[in-house]
Amino acid sequence: xxxxxxxxxFGDEVTIIxxxxxxLFSGCSKxxxxxxxxxxxIPIRSLISTQxxxxxxxxxxxxxxxxxxxxxxxxxxxxxEPVEKFNLFKCKILMPPLNVEICCSSINIEER
Length: 112
What we know:
The chain is mainly beta. The chain contains no helices and ten strands. A hairpin with a 2-residue loop joins strand 6 (about 75) and strand 7 (about 75-80). The model has no long low-confidence stretch (mean pLDDT about 90).
């Protein structure tokens, strides 16, 4: 059973707690949460933990490299873009009725 999905620091960190496990995703560049509108008819805030409908069913992690897409302007002039490669993790998490996709630079898993 998933007890918490928390996004902090403008999406830089995502925490998921389920059963006795806490997963912290850091350095997040993408956080995508998809659910059916039917899931939001009753505000989740009003539910107690035993009423939460989320159960971790699948957790897939792949690694990939990407380049920075930074555009820098100085005095109206566009400067050459610095090309920097980043090694990231792409995490796909299935916890119906939610599907979550996170791209991050680190993942920390701890028992609570």
